[in-house]
Amino acid sequence: MNLVQGTLAVLNDAKHFLEQINTEQYNQSISLMSDSTIGQHTRHFIEFYQCLITQANTRKINYCLRKRDITIEQSPEAALAAINIILRDFNALDFERSVLLSSSKEGIYEIRSTVSRELYYNLEHCIHHLALIRVAINIIAPNIRLPEHFGIAPSTLQHRRLVNQQIH
Q: Which strands sit side by side in the sheet containing 60-62, from one edge to the other?
């Protein structure tokens, strides 16, 4: 699986749960997750992708400048719409473009990167949040069916397959 395929896969996984979850579940505070909500985790990874897509042409990526859109955080439908826009727009990115990554609102710390490196970062970041969302769904909405690979890194899946082959 390449970077584009991986991105498509995790964003489609996110769409899968968003199509099943109701607004109450999406906004339910979960004590085991420091009282965060599924909506907060979803908004967070969506906005990182949005930053990458909207800032890549400026050659400067700063994830601290994300919008923190409460609508995406509170509405699974708004989150689904935002993901559909990301899926529509991300292929237009120049993956080999060099960019500077700023690590603060003031842009004090900057490091060189590329759009493809930042897309990989977003992929890993999204998987991490999907893993947390998986835990939350298991707690508050166990009726929602998730794919076995949901929120699991490709390297972990590959390792599990290898171990299973050795066992059998």
A: 60-62, 98-102, 110-114
